[in-house]
Amino acid sequence: MALATPDPQIDISKVELVTMRRRHVRQVMKIEAQVYPRPWSSALFLQEIVRRADRYYLAARYDSAVVGYGGLITSGLEAHITTIAVDPAYHRTGIGTKLMVGLLDAAIARGGRTISLEVRRSNFAAQNMYEKFGFRPVGLRPGYYVETGEDAIVMWVDQVDGPEYAALLNRMRQRFEVPRANRNEVSGG
Q1: What confidence score (pLDDT) does residue 5 get?
Q2: Element (H, E) at 83
Q3: 145 is catalytic
Q4: Which residue, among 113, 158, 116, has the nearest Cα to 141 in the 3D structure?
Q5: In CATH, which superfamily holds the domain spanning 13-183?
Q6: Residues 69, 118, 164, 185: which is the catalytic one?
Q7: Is 147 a catalytic residue?
Q8: Which residue among 6, 39, 143, 169 is least enclosed by CB atoms within 10 Å?
Q9: Handedness of CA 11, 133, 50, 67 (dihedral sign)
């Protein structure tokens, strides 16, 4: 499994992953409006980020600006990535991969063994990134994206708590300079 190479135009080590807070939402909304035809509202993000027991949201910061974000829901042994986006000016720089490592670390720290997500059928770049993390297509949600009528591919990865997956995440963590998640910060409780 080949790993993507970060774009040399940015220093990926200077992209910081932080727990999303209220102060980040305005910048998140600017990205959200650029990348989604039907963006989430700021009220929805605010509702999500306060639900720390079963939600976890990250903001990726570079030069003091939010350049990406992602979130997940956890429930027992399962986790679901609800959203992940990168400012189009920073696509193909490794920020999405760095966010995925942070989200997967959080899901595992919260007891997740299986992780799912939906992705647009036409979003081949995202599908390729998810496949690098072991996600595989397991189903289709016809017309899932209401604003365009586009289908969603359901992707799934399991046994993320095993040694093989830990080795994969460690390789990604090293290549994209992602510090290991602080277990207390992501624990949700």
Answers
A1: 44
A2: strand 78-86
A3: no
A4: 116
A5: Gcn5-related N-acetyltransferase (GNAT) (3.40.630.30)
A6: 118
A7: no
A8: 143
A9: positive
Per-residue pLDDT, averaged over 134-162, amounts to 94
CA distances from 37 to 5, 40, 57, 71 (A): 29, 10, 21, 19
Q: What is the pLDDT of residues 66-125, one digit of tens each?
A: 999 999 999 999 999 999 999 999 999 999 999 999 999 999 999 999 999 999 999 999
Please state, in angstroms and rounded to a whole number, the distance separating the CA atoms of residues 166 and 160: 7
Q: Where are the domains of the chain?
A: 13-183
Q: What is the pLDDT of residues 47-74, one digit of tens each?
A: 999 999 999 999 999 998 999 999 999 9
| Tokens 């007891």 sit on residue | 111
Q: What sign for the dihedral angle of Cα 134, 141, 123, 70?
A: negative
Higher pLDDT residue, 131 or 38?
131
What H or E segment, with its residue span, contains residue 108? helix 95-109
CA distance 39 to 171: 33
Catalytic residue among 56, 69, 130, 165: 130
